[in-house]
Design goal:
Structural class: alpha/beta
CATH architecture: Alpha-Beta Barrel
Strand order of the largest sheet: 1-7-18-17-14-12-10
CATH class: Alpha Beta
CATH superfamily: Trimethylamine methyltransferase-like
Helix content: 40-55%
Number of strands: 20
Strand content: 5-15%
Oligomer: single chain
């Protein structure tokens, strides 16, 4: 069938070139506190580890600390870590961490100054305008993985939602299969006990055609380790730190503290506690294997003191991110921060909170920003529509990261000379050569005037976002996979499932 004239013209139109895959943070960094005050917070964290200690529930982790020189009280499970041990751990932790994606052009480097985004993660529920709010399913996990793959400005796959229709002792098979066949970005592995972690590593290693030595020689995936504030590292989190350190894979240590609930109510107090816990976890990775890849991280916000519910995108959340960034720069490690929203729907509150929280992360110099798209209800839900509307902002941020000064033809000196005073630039050669590619092309925004918008059905942004994600999911899977590798993966999962899977450790 022959294409119509408009279709041919669209095909022939110049394509705007963008590179959202390799971003560096161009924004001047802000400070929440003076350098002296940040140094005091770091010293307070070291004092806390040395004198008050942390509770470590995993016996093997306590033994690792003991062998590293820490004092351990087995009767209370408390570990007291000397500052010299922590300082040695920080010195051995790598400051730059290359991580391999499923395709080489998806590789990333985690280091201060680089910038990676992730969508919302860890939610038990999914929601969209068509099906409404529901417990997360395997179908939702696949859909959200495909949406993550579609946008270049999302660089890592997080633990999007829990596919609750799959038993937890088999769930890691499903999430790993989706990440290897539906995306070629850096994958996430749940830390739910050594058996599940080792099986996930095996699946990823074999799917990528690596030897065991090659897999362990470089980071291929990552996990997120949340401590149990205040001052507790539980069994699966401690085991995850050990498992990932031994395998040379990335742990992103992220205490999740809420001011006035699991941490002091002040920003400085909450961040000091979070820093204390992060240092303890980082030290465990380095005592397990010197040079193991590990990222610093914090996720600190406040609570609504009337309801007790967590809130995000607040001034306190913003300041906490800034303080965490200062501490990350003090110890020199790449670090993860987080945006997010406590709103219950994809409305103005949700947009404001996510954008304000994201800017806090950007001005703090975060290496990885999670929950930057789609997150609602303080992490209880990932919204399909919100993921799309948030992507508009992330892509515009990426445009600012990619913008540069050339001091050449972009100055438009010829155009200025061509146009007389009180004239216009619409028809100048300079404009005609660039009008199709010079400006950011909106993903979901509608720039038509009110009358035109009404004639087209007066469709709001939330409704337009539905059409965007539906269009993406209607397309064929763009990820190229090796049929033999996919077949071997399915065989592995079938055999492992028949053998009973792997129960999580808690």
């Amino acid at each position: 069938m022959r294409k119509g004239r408009k279709a041919r013209q669209a095909d022939d139109a110049p394509k705007r070139k963008t590179d959202y895959r390799n971003l560096k943070n161009p924004f001047p960094l802000m400070k929440a506190f003076s350098d002296d005050h940040i140094a005091k917070m770091h010293e307070a964290a070291l004092d806390t580890l040395e004198n008050l200690g942390v509770k470590v529930l995993l016996p093997a982790a306590r033994e690792t600390f003991r062998q590293g020189g820490a004092k351990v009280d087995e009767s209370t499970e408390m570990v007291y870590i000397g500052r010299d041990i922590v300082q040695a751990a920080l010195a051995s932790a790598p400051k730059s961490i290359p991580v391999a994606g499923g395709a080489r052009d998806r590789d990333i480097v985690l280091e201060l100054g680089n910038l990676c985004f992730q969508p919302g993660a860890g939610a038990p529920h999914a929601t969209d305008r068509i099906k409404g709010r529901r417990p997360g399913t395997w179908s939702d996990y696949q859909d959200l993985t495909r949406l993550t793959q579609h946008f270049d400005v999302l660089h890592m796959v997080p633990p999007l939602i829990e596919p609750q229709d799959i038993p937890i002792h088999l769930r890691h098979y499903a999430t790993m299969e989706a990440q290897m066949t539906l995306t070629d970005k850096v994958p996430f592995v749940f830390s739910r006990g050594t058996p599940q972690v080792e099986q996930s590593f095996e699946m990823l290693r074999d799917f990528r055609g690596l030897s065991d030595a090659e897999f362990h020689a470089g980071a291929q995936c990552y996990t997120i380790i949340n401590t149990n504030s205040p001052r507790t590292i539980d069994i699966p989190m401690a085991q995850g730190l050990i498992d990932f350190a031994k395998a040379g894979q990335v742990s992103i240590v992220t205490p999740f503290t809420l001011m006035g609930a699991m941490a002091p109510i002040t920003v400085a107090g909450a961040i000091t506690l979070s820093h204390t816990e992060a240092l303890a976890a980082i030290t465990l990775t380095q005592l397990t294997k010197s040079g193991a890849p590990v990222c610093y991280g914090t996720f600190t916000s406040n609570v609504d003191m009337k309801s007790g519910a967590p809130v995000f995108g607040t001034p306190e959340h913003f300041r906490a991110s800034l303080a965490a960034g200062q501490l990350a720069r003090l110890i020199g490690l790449p670090w993860r921060s987080a945006s997010g929203s406590a709103a219950n729907s994809n409305d103005v509150q949700a947009a404001n909170e996510t954008q304000f929280g994201t800017w806090g992360c950007l001005m703090a110099g975060a290496t990885v920003i999670i929950h930057a798209a789609g997150w609602l209800e303080g992490g209880l839900t990932v919204s399909y529509e919100k993921l799309i509307t948030d992507m508009e902002v992330l892509q515009m941020v990426a445009e600012l990261c990619a913008a540069g000064e050339t001091a050449g033809a972009d100055l438009g000196l010829d155009a200025i000379a061509d146009v007389q005073p009180s004239g216009h630039f619409f028809g100048t050669p300079h404009t005609m050569e660039r009008y199709q590619t010079e400006f950011y092309e909106p993903l979901v925004a509608d720039y038509s005037n009110y009358g035109t918008w009404q004639e087209r059905g007066a469709i709001d942004a939330n409704t337009r976002a539905t059409g965007v994600w539906q269009d993406i999911l209607a397309r064929p899977n763009p990820v190229k996979t090796d049929d033999q590798a996919v077949g071997d993966l399915k065989d592995y999962i079938a055999k492992a499932t028949k053998a009973g899977g792997a129960a999580p450790v808690s």
